[in-house]
Amino acid sequence: MFPKSPLIVIVAPFLLMVVLISGTLWHYGYRAALSDLARRGSADMALVLGGLVSDLQRYRDQAVALADHPTLTALNRPNARHQDSAAHRLLTASADRTGAAGLYYVDRGGNLLAGTGTRLPEGLATSAPFLRAMDGALGTAHTMSADGTERLFHFAAPSFGSDGKVRGALVAIADAENVEFGWRGLQTAVFLVDDRGRVFMSNRSELLGWRKVPQDTVLIPPNGAPIPFSRSLTTGYEIWQIDLGPYLPRRALQVSQTLPRIGMTGAALVNVAPARRIAGLQAGAVAGVLLFFGALLYLAQERRRTLARANAQLEGRVAERTATLTRTNLALRHEIRERQEAEAALKRAQAELVQAGKLSALGKMSAGISHELNQPLMAIRQFAANGGAFLHRGEPDRAAENLSRIDEMAHRMSRIIRNLRAFVRNENEPMGRVDMGRVIDTALEMTGARLTADAITLDWQAPSAPVWVRGGEVRLGQVMVNLITNAADAMAKSTNKRLTLTLIPGAPVTLCVRDTGPGIQEPEKIFDPFYSTKLVGDGEGMGLGLSISYGLVQSFGGQITGRNTETGAEFTVALEPWTDPAHVKKGAA
Questions:
Q1: For position 572, what pLDDT does the model report?
Q2: Which CATH number fits domain 7-181: 3.30.590.20, 3.30.450.20, 3.30.750.24, 3.30.230.10?
Q3: What is the mean pLDDT of residues 270-299?
Q4: Fewest Cβ atoms closer than 10 Å to its Cβ: which of 66, 469, 540, 568?
């Protein structure tokens, strides 16, 4: 019996275990999702920063390429003011092609020689990029107005004279808004912070001009009070929690990358809400599964208690019927043993019947076989006598020729005897790969004397390549001998005696045996045991050949059928092709 435990003792520990497992899974899923978010944020930021560097490189290359343009350097010569219009057109066309905000060619004194505008921007002649260009190097800088509305990149490339000295500089100005235009569709918030901590560029316009206090969790907008935010580390990732408007995440993963080439730091804020949602769904799903199976287990426990009580009542009834079932079981075992013995006896009888059929066919072929063996024996005697005579005459070459013919006759007799031995032996080997063309050739060798004696014309074209089927070589040979001898018996009184054998490869492999006899009298009975169309007592057979052949073909998984044609009878044997990959590969090699 199973005493009933209090509900709280079972449920409380289980619920605590569910909470612990779900919490652990939530933290694990959250950390894994953060890793994915960090990779995505880094990839988005790398895409943006790579595009930024590429765009800025375009303006830098433009400044370098135009600095030594002949149309501009010609302005350094005296009395070259007549070329101002050509230089202005050159710089205007170049600015249109690249989208530059302005292109200016300035001499060493800071005087504007040519440009897209009529006046040089204020402070350009004293700016750090221009002064660096006067030293013979490429100067770069970025500027932003106090209210953050104007953000520019400056590139100054020196222009050298024929004496190798700096004569002036080509200054290219690019508007940061044009550069960051391609960022706007990006879902991740990306921004660039300059060396003063200000947000110089971003795909979120509300962040422009904001400044972050180093080593402090405070953001300062261009016009407003500082906004504090919380920062935490989760498995090495920095998480910001701040309210910056509807288009920025309240809880975000912050990833950053320095850009020493332009003196800025790139950063991205990736919303962690999807990661928390995925972790929550995973933990909730596991908790739901655990609670579901916990409820099932509790119900199963209660059901088990009920079944245990019912089982105790049934045990008595089962004990009463056990004796009766035991006696019945013994009787069934005895009956099964008898059936197994009967089946074994039946198989032995079938094997003996098959062997009897072979011996019966062998008896029919005995006269022809004796003739086939007698011919080579007579030839051997004749060739032996001739060889001795040639040796007495001193003609060893002709004697050797007779000895070679004796060897050929001996091989012929050996082949006939080998085929007979293979035909009459009991085959116990399992089914395997058999060349059907070789089986037919062997059967024709064994029945060739009968076909010749009865003046039967054989129509058989052996295939050029082996046709592999699934079966036993000896048993298939018996089937072929039965079909050929039956056809010969059927054509005994025919004037036109022709036996046609056709082997068709494929799936299945099909063999057709067609004769020119009188046909089949009762096609539906031809495979019945002891059915024969021969006269009783004529000694031509017991009517078992086709029945045995039918059983052998069925054992190989094939099918044998018989029908009448316009010229006689036709038997068709369909066999499964051999498709063992190991043999196919070996044969192909």
A1: 92
A2: 3.30.450.20
A3: 78
A4: 540
